[in-house]
Design goal:
single chain, 7 helices, about 230 residues, about 35% strand, alpha/beta, five-stranded antiparallel beta sheet
Amino acid sequence: MTLRCYILEDQAPARRVMENYLARLEDLTVVGGSAVPAEAAQALDRQAVDLLLLDLGLPQQDGFDFLAQRETPPVVIVTTAFGERALEGFNHGVADYLVKPFTFERFSTAIERARIALRARGDSTILSIPVDRGRREYVPSRDVVSFSADGDYVVINTLEARYYTLGPLTAWLARVPSPPFIRIHRSHAVNQHHITGLDGRAVILAGNRLPVSATHMVKLKRLLDAMHLMQ
């Protein structure tokens, strides 16, 4: 798959470095570049772009503000001198965060992460979950057991791990199919394929218990009856 890349960077030397790096990699083409966010927005509206290399310290607009205004942005790699904004970047869902100056090897790693993110976008059953130190995990939704709200965060329990990430819960539920994911409580949703039964007002799945609210209990019992899990 050839990646169509656009560079939004206000420093000409930095643009040339990235263009040279991209030229050394296979299946990449630079379809444009600019130092001006308004020009970049028009370019992204006119043509298909897979990957945006995004500087933050732009002359007319902050890079993250530019990204937030895009309804369906490309996959993004941040390229910036501001290392302290990395967490903000991953909250925006960027594929990687590069702090200048960066080597060709580090740039190549970022491109591979962008490719993985693009493949994940093409498969709605894959969840892209930010984890510590800027890494992301790509988890098939079939392996997700439950989602639980915890303040501003969401706990994603899978068959092999537990992830804490920013919410809201509704945003994460919008990324997975329903069914098999069903709401059992204001703060909990589960994958019906991992349910093994009920214990009073709690559902049992993957060895854990989660509460079921009264408003969801009737629907859940009907589901369990259909799955032949009720005694």
